[in-house]
TrEMBL record:
Annotated gene: coaE
UniProt organism field: Allosphingosinicella indica
Record bears the keyword Nucleotide-binding: yes
UniProt-recorded name of the protein: Dephospho-CoA kinase
Keyword tags: ATP-binding, Coenzyme A biosynthesis, Cytoplasm, Kinase, Nucleotide-binding, Transferase
Metabolic or biological pathway, per its Swiss-Prot or TrEMBL entry: Cofactor biosynthesis; coenzyme A biosynthesis; CoA from (R)-pantothenate: step 5/5
PANTHER family: BIFUNCTIONAL COENZYME A SYNTHASE-RELATED, DEPHOSPHO-COA KINASE-RELATED
Keyword field contains Kinase: yes
Cell location: Cytoplasm
UniProt xrefs under SUPFAM superfamilies: P-loop containing nucleoside triphosphate hydrolases
Classification lineage: Bacteria, Pseudomonadati, Pseudomonadota, Alphaproteobacteria, Sphingomonadales
Family, similarity comment: Belongs to the CoaE family.
Amino acid sequence: MTLILGLTGSIGMGKSTVAAMFADEGVPVFDADAEVHRLQGPEGALVAEIEAHFPGTTSAAGVNRTTLAERVLGDGDALGRLEALIHPAVALARAEFLAAHEAAPFVVLDIPLLFEKGGWDQVDKIAVVSAPADVQRVRVLARPGMNAEKFARILALQLPDAEKRARADFVIPTGGSLGETREAVSGIVRTLSVPRRKPGSST
């Protein structure tokens, strides 16, 4: 049976970099954020629905993510309506991914809000990427369109980093060198690459 490793972490912690490291190791990775980008892109299946619910947030180029974020952040009802559009579509793509890689020793599901949205019950193990708060803040505020107020609103929607680390099976440090982070990833790959026995198997 294929083991499912959930990869998560708060904004600015380096999750995308770590996901790429797993892929470099030959591990199949499902990137939920990348799937959302695809669904909201120029040919995305959700563009028309998002425009219907949030007029003025799309164009021929797809969804304007900055405009959409400004519309839903801080508005629980609006955020809920957006998630009701996105989550089923991402879940379908994830199921197709898992079916395609059922022979792999393990796969990685890159899930940004794994703890916040209940995704922990969909995985066998959890890896949390983590960096010191000051490093996180510098990274996030360097992003285009980001400011301290928006950062604070995003953090308010996320489980604190300390709690995520406490609930993780693996913690991947991203506040030091890339080499240190890569070694942590390689260690997890070595640990999880032993094929799992099927239930009832005696070998």
